[in-house]
Amino acid sequence: MIEEKTYRKYLEALIKGDKATCSVIIKEKLDANINIKELYTGLFQRSLYKIGELWESNRISVATEHLATSITESLMHMTYPIIFESEHIGKKAVISCVASEFHQIGGKMVADIFELHGWDGYFIGANTPEYELYRMIHDKKPDVLALSLSLYFNLPKLLHLLEQINEWFPGLDIIVGGQAFRWGGREEVEKYEKVNYLSSLDELEEFIANNTKP
Q: Which long-range contacts (CB under 8 A, 24 or more apart) does 187-195 make?
């Protein structure tokens, strides 16, 4: 569990761009064998949601928001010695942001959770052109495709992507998620076959557990 005092200290340092203090907090938690998903949700995700709220209300600058995002992404690397020591089980997931989406931390978190549970998580980043995603699906033949959507006005691009994937890769399990769905869209994506909307990393872990069973 992330204590409120720790979260507040971390958030304050993140807003100031104080990477050193943030790093010390993360190291302390890792040394205490914190659950990685708890770290991701209780510090990384929660603080970035707050940063987004502050930016939307013009209480911080876009530069501050970008710096906080950059620091968070670099701090995630501190967890990788733990994440990548998991024994792999032969399952594969391709994770991507929709074209014109530049917020990639959510997608990276999803990939890391897959890796933590022994899957090969192929995260191909932000603003991925559709043809490159199709090529990756063809080459890797994943068990699951995960798509991240942060901006609601990009929903039509996601829907077009789902139409094409259902046509060209029938039967492929697809999960979608992201901050965009705060404004709606769940019913529109779930009308496609084999598509599931997941609202949290808790739901992702449940999905992984259900799709890892023999």
A: 188/155, 188/159, 189/158, 189/159, 189/162, 192/162, 192/163, 192/166, 193/166, 194/166, 195/162
